[in-house]
Amino acid sequence: MNTHELWQAVLGELELSLSKANFTTWFKNTFLVTQVGTDMCVGVPNAFTKAWLEKKYHKEILQSLQNLTDNAVRTVSYRVETRVPAMQMSVPAAVSAVNEPVFSSNVSEIPVEQPRPAAPPSGEFTLNGKYAFGTFIVGKQNELAHAAAQAVSAQPGGVYNPLFIYGGVGLGKTHLVQAIGNEMVRKNPNTRVLYVTCERFTNDYINAVRGGQAKEFKNRYRTVDLLLVDDIQFITGKEGTQEEFFHTFNQLYQNNKQIVITSDRPPKAIPQLEQRLISRFECGMMADVGSPDYETRVAILDAKCREKNYPIERDILHHVATVVQTNVRELEGALNKLIAFHQFKNVSPTLESVKPILTSFNPNNTKKNVTPRQLIQTIALYFDLHVEDLLGKSREKRLAFPRQIAMYLMREEMKQSYPTIGNELGGRDHTTAMHAYEKICTCLNEDEKLQHDLELIKQRLYAV
Ligand code: ADP
Ligand code: MG
Question: Where are the alpha helices (DSSP H) in 104-227?
């Protein structure tokens, strides 16, 4: 048996004891480089595989080699090495190569061993210490997401992998995912956490491709213990980024590394998201966050006052919680505004002094400020369409439905007349607007996704 046949036999044994995913991930493109006496050297495609084989599979590999050679082999080492391209072309599947491998003669020029790839230090990229579990107020609308986040930080890479948290703006998604990162780093300072917004991931990827740094990119993203990706909905329609994210995801997932993703909506509702990503996102744990109820709003205000060391009377907090209903970010904004005002005037807040400050947060006031044009823009953005498409003539379903939603909201939220609505939407007849309104009303009764969509659109519409 020559070295090549020997290695094929080893692979054959390992294949039986490993899952297909693990086997392909770790043993694809491996080969026996040399055998000097009783010492074997295995060539591996990258440093990560090297580290992994050394750590996880060394025993099995050695055992198998010894079995097959009647204990002639004593030691195994691993070396990062690449075969010459010609060889790769002649071998259909590297794992089941049939020819005696040919190796590059100038191995030393090929990126030699690197230590474990340059990884981001813990918490690089804006892990913000203030987003901790300790400062997160739990209410009915976020208790599931909160519990899942805690479970993940206690046991990363376990059953809640990936964790997918979704819900409207300002409801604590970023806070929760960063709390996971902070908690894991607190427990083990060596944890490699990478927090990125989807935008950042996209830009990094584009820059890496442009700058010929795909390898560095992969090293950075595929070797962490915890990957937090915020606002994944922005990946819509970006094919290259989706492809890359898919592979990043798989790699981490296979290594039992934890992935946490946030989005403003569930995976299925993200337009132009590849099916394979949808099913990956759905295969772990999905938890939504909703708008806080009155009690939670009061509790949040109370906690924030303590944090800021600025006591405010109970009835004033209740008033703020009554007026500001949309989300936690606005709630905080209102509180900050109120505190700044009174600190500046150097007076204590009273119900009378607070009321005028909060008028801009009153939902009834903000609604009046939205124009039909803004509404149409919001809807176009939400469904990833162009405004012209919504106003245009085409009756394609992907356009017609959002258009009907626009008409419905113009009626429901802005109390516009049907002729006005028809006009605003590309000069359509008032009966079209009427029909749209009725249709959406009917659909809303049974279509939960639509209810959710409308909720999110409204949140965006009135977000300051
Ligand atoms: P999202 O990412 O969902 O848009 P964020 O996590 O940025 O929302 O939350 C907006 C602000 O509200 C942040 O300052 C965050 O700390 C705060 N916040 C949100 N939910 C809570 C909560 N349950 N308890 C305390 N603070 C919260
Ligand atoms: Mg956020």
Answer: 143-154, 173-187, 198-210, 214-222
**pLDDT(437) > 70:** yes
For residues 271-297, average pLDDT: 93
Q: Render pLDDT for 34-52 as a digit per residue (tens, 0 to 9).
A: 878 888 899 887 766 787 7
Distance 274 CA to ligand 1 centre (A): 29
DSSP string, 234-251: GGTT-HHHHHHHHHHHHH
Please report how many Cα atoms fall inside a 13 Å half-sphere around the Cα of residue 256, on the Cβ side: 7
* Nearest alpha carbon to residue 408 among 429, 438, 432: 438
Give the Cα separation of 416 and 414 in Å (integer): 5
Cα–ligand 2 centroid distance for 169 (angstroms): 7
**CA 219/CA 114 separation, integer angstroms:** 11
Say which ligand is closest to the CA of 145. 1
Dihedral sign, Cα of residue 336, residue 338, residue 339, residue 341: positive
- Return the ligand number nearest the Cα of 460: 1
Q: How far is CA 434 from the centre of its chain?
A: 39
Peptide bond into 162 cis (omega under 30): yes
Q: Distance (Å, rounded) from C-alpha 454 to C-alpha 446?
A: 13
Name the packing angle between helices 143-154 and 173-187 (round to 10°): 20
CA distance 40 to 44: 13
